[in-house]
Design goal:
Rossmann fold, Helicase, Ruva Protein, domain 3, 5-stranded parallel beta sheet, alpha/beta, 586 residues, 21 helices, 4 domains
């Protein structure tokens, strides 16, 4: 499919949603800020009637602005509660434009979803009880990265179309051959467009082949087919309308590969090609390798091959007892406090660093002024301590990724090169997120902290310029050193992820004495400590073939296990990013 065809498929949802906004719910527009997204929105706006209300909902919008609430000025002036409409009521009969929908709070997403279902919003707060019409449709501007969840599911499933714009350029999006008058005429004809039983059965069969079992998706597909027929001026849907609805609605929700001969839409996810991991470089046979030239290590590390679908067949460690604590890319959830991103307002006293929310305090006091003012000799404004409202904030936690690398034995050069390349790749990402990385190498009889937690690329390169290797494998000391550093990081209020690169075969005990049996016993004891601390961990088995000892060690740690012989720096970097999502989903 050419870029021009993908551009047409990306623009058609704008026209169909404009014909039947209430029936189709709206569009999830996945694109970063740029010319392509602005062109899509400009053409969508051109299809709306001039008097159609469009309200933009900013990130972090308070409930009082979204739902409506107390008009403080009118209430204080009149001495009685006076309500005001929120954004949902103001957009009645029109559209909501959700900015940064991927970061929309769950409660706000649920309220918008309720308005989409019922067409109204009930308000009962601050002495105001009212029901406002909120017959709206939604354009959710989703700027999520690959490792983010995206628009909350409670809202995304109520939007018929899921449009991916990022691969397209502004020139790829054609001008729609419709005007606002054409859309208005199609909206009037929509009620007369018939959907026969055979067409509905055909849609249901195609949905089943794609693995789409949500009845709402089938209804969306039927409405999209009717909207396409109405836009074309026909009284009944045809086969082309069914095919278009499958492309735009069902294939974006597909769980199974389509058996239809029609090409898939630009929005449908295409699985990446699978490369054979056996095409890797031959194993190095050098014993007692030591850290060599920095550039040579990087070249050797990046030259390896890693299957793109490495997680498809990777057995995951059992983490059912570990509660999910991560949220997005910013680390673990943190308790609410006086600093950070404002999230809610609660009743309370402005003490221990908490800040008074003046507007919300006035809103709480306003309904009681008619009773309080006579008792206070006609004072203009009377505020009691029960009226105090404080604003709570959600502090952002940094994430520290701790690499614990087995630097012993014949393949130390390869493992250290991989670790160095992965650290440098992650540093570029961590700098933008204000996250950090650390590196611990263990060999001989001890584990050494080569790179303390940092996000400085210059400091990292200096620490990684010379990484020694060779000697015994003090696996227990390496795990314990990583756990101690992770514990120190978490005591500072940050979250930590432990990444262990080893073949799982230790031969040096915790006390520095040799002996494989004692070494393995000490390593398992250290692994149990990691699991007991509910620490997110990943064990990358670097042996040429998956070794049972490494799998057993991962199970004892409660870690994600990945047998990745010849893993390269890019593969490890991608693995670490995905590990957080798998840990939260487990």
């Amino acid at each position: 499919m050419t870029s021009g065809e993908r551009g047409v498929l990306a623009m058609l949802p704008a026209a169909l949603a404009a014909v039947d906004p209430r029936g189709l719910g709206g569009v999830r527009l996945r694109a970063r800020v740029g010319p392509a997204r602005e062109r899509w929105l400009a053409q969508w706006r051109a299809l709306l009637a001039p008097d159609t209300p469009v309200r933009k909902v900013p990130l972090g919008v308070p409930d009082a602005r979204l739902l409506g609430g107390l008009d403080i000025e009118a209430t204080l002036t009149g001495g009685r509660p006076v309500g005001q409409r929120g954004l949902l009521a103001e957009a009645d009969g029109g559209w909501l434009l959700l900015a940064m929908a991927e970061r929309l709070r769950a409660d706000s997403a649920a309220r918008v979803a309720a308005a989409l279902d019922s067409g109204s919003i009930a308000l009962l707060r601050d002495g105001i009880e009212a029901v406002h019409d909120a017959r709206v449709a939604v354009i959710a501007l989703d700027e999520a990265e690959d490792d983010e969840t995206g628009t909350p599911a409670v809202l995304a499933e109520r939007l018929a179309f899921d449009v991916m714009l990022d691969p397209l350029r502004q020139a790829d999006l054609p001008d729609l051959p419709f005007s606002a008058q054409d859309i208005a005429g199609a909206a009037q004809r929509l009620a007369t467009v018939a959907l026969d039983e055979d067409s509905l059965i055909d849609l249901a069969a195609r949905a089943a082949r794609l693995g789409v079992h949500n009845p709402r998706a089938l209804l969306f597909a039927a409405r999209a087919a009717r909207a396409a027929a109405a836009l074309d001026g026909r009284p009944a849907i045809a086969g082309d309308d069914i095919a278009l609805a499958v492309r735009l609605v069902l294939q974006t929700r597909a769980r199974l590969q389509s058996t239809d001969t029609a090409p898939r839409s630009a929005d449908a996810a295409t699985p990446p090609p699978v490369r054979d991991s056996d095409d890797a470089r031959p194993e190095s046979g050098a014993e007692g390798a030591s850290g060599g030239d920095e550039d040579g290590q990087a070249v050797e590390a990046v030259g390896a091959a890693l299957p793109e679908n490495v997680f498809a067949g990777t057995p995951r460690a059992r983490r059912s007892r570990i509660p999910p604590t991560g949220h997005g890319r910013s680390g673990e959830a943190a308790p609410l406090g006086p600093r950070g991103r404002p999230v809610c307002v609660r009743r309370g006293q402005p003490e221990r660093g908490m800040r008074l929310s003046v507007i919300d305090t006035l809103r709480a006091a306003a309904p009681w002024q008619s009773l309080r003012q006579p008792a206070q000799g006609g004072a203009r404004l009377v505020i009691d301590s029960d009226d105090f409202r404080i604003r709570l904030h959600k502090p952002r936690r940094r994430t520290t990724t701790i690499f614990v690398v087995d630097a012993s034995g014949s393949t130390a050069l390869q493992r250290l090169g991989e670790a160095k390349g992965a650290v440098e790749l992650l540093l570029a990402e961590c700098y933008a997120r204000r996250d950090r990385v650390a590196l611990i190498a263990f060999r001989g009889t001890a584990a050494d902290l080569l790179l303390p937690p940092t996000r400085s690329l210059v400091r990292a390169r200096r620490s990684l310029s010379s990484l020694p290797g060779g000697g015994g494998t003090p696996l227990a000391q390496g795990i314990e050193a990583g756990w101690l550093l992770a514990d120190a990081v978490r005591r500072q209020g940050d979250s930590a992820t432990l990444v262990l690169l080893t073949d799982g075969r230790g031969n040096v005990a915790r006390d520095g004495q040799g002996g494989r049996q004692r070494a393995e016993h000490d390593a398992l004891e250290a692994a149990r400590r990691v699991r007991a601390s509910l620490l997110h961990a990943v064990l990358i088995d670097t042996s040429p073939r998956p070794y049972p000892a490494a799998r057993c060690l991962a199970e004892r740690m409660g870690a994600l296990y990945a047998p990745l012989p010849r893993a390269d720096a890019h593969g490890i970097s991608r693995l670490v990013r995905e590990a957080g999502e798998y840990a939260r989903a487990a």
